[in-house]
What does this fold into?
Amino acid sequence: MTTTPPKNRHRLFADVPEATDAQVRQTARTFYRGVVSDAVTTALETFEWVVDARRRGKRVIATDADMLPGTFEEPVIAGLERLGHEWTWLVSRDHPWRRQLWVKGRTIAAGDLARTAAIEGWTAEEAAREFDLPVEAVLEAQRYAEMARDLIDAEEAENRIAAQRHEPDLAPLR
Amino acid sequence: MRLYVDEDSASLQLLARLRAAGHVVIEPLRGLSDALCWRHAQTDRAVVLTTNARDFVALASTGAHYGLLLVYRENDPTRDMTAKDIAAAVDRIAETYPEGISDQILTLNGFRW
It folds into this structure.
């Protein structure tokens, strides 16, 4: 049985050595829940970021966090949010399109929790009470939200676009 | 209005405000998939309120339902809806649609007059 891919998706074939095939699949398994297209797309985006920086006369280097210069550019690479960080209260989940971390044992995305606390002006203690969570879980979600701001903003934009399709043209008059 | 508030929005303050306004708010499920929560809400004949528009709109498209209320974040402190704003917008929906909102999807951000 064959399935027709969605119209806005294209299938790409490439002959690669066995080792490259294994490397791509391993990367997809480790960082992208086995989704090869996500791994390849992200790798290409990262490469393009490097090329763009080089074209602008920049050097692309790695350095220790305490050696960072006053100004610098850093790529946001989806899937690597957890790398170098051990989260106690946050976990990744299988989700069709969201990649941000979630509060362990709950269906609350870390970014949603941090955003709600910010909108309401709640302290971490107040947010913890409001959602029946440990304060440490809220603090960790807020730290993560700072780190993964671009990813969280992008996922909020997805929901905003989906919601705005159902916005009334004109709110009823009272 | 009979409501199921999705877990990511179900702060004590929002639930309390909705109940104080006379709405019946069923207890949110914890840690379960959106699909299970949706089914639970439909079994309980409840309107679902969520910020998770993309996933719940997809669930709503699977058949008849008791209504879906969406809240979206504008990333603007002067525009983003607090629990107080959300509860007020739900009141306006209840006034505007006294017969209920079965099979309708409405965005609460559009009801902050």
